[in-house]
């Protein structure tokens, strides 16, 4: 899962989501620079603290606390994601070798400028 915990959101995440406000007193994690210098320790600590709930449970807690967060999807999950589908990011095209296929489209779209793939990517010679 991806967390958007920069600045005051980090404090909100530690207090309201993790219920561990003492983490913000740890000298390794007080500022963004401190957290950046100790990112491995922070990630290990978060993995340990967050192991007891599912991603969906953590996402709900983050959402209720106003902390930006989202799942990290594999390809199959992305193809079924309601947001990707609603934004028209799942595109279907005809591939000259494998036939009809679905793929993920461009992430940067707007209402006026919908981008589509003109043609599928060619296979690498190693994959023929």
UniProtKB/TrEMBL annotation:
InterPro entries: CoA-transferase_III_domain, CoA-Trfase_fam_III, CoA-Trfase_III_dom3_sf, CoA-Trfase_III_dom_1_sf. It comes from Vreelandella olivaria. It holds the Pfam family CoA_transf_3. The lineage of its organism: Bacteria, Pseudomonadati, Pseudomonadota, Gammaproteobacteria, Oceanospirillales. Keywords: Transferase. It comes from the Bacteria. This is Uncharacterized protein.
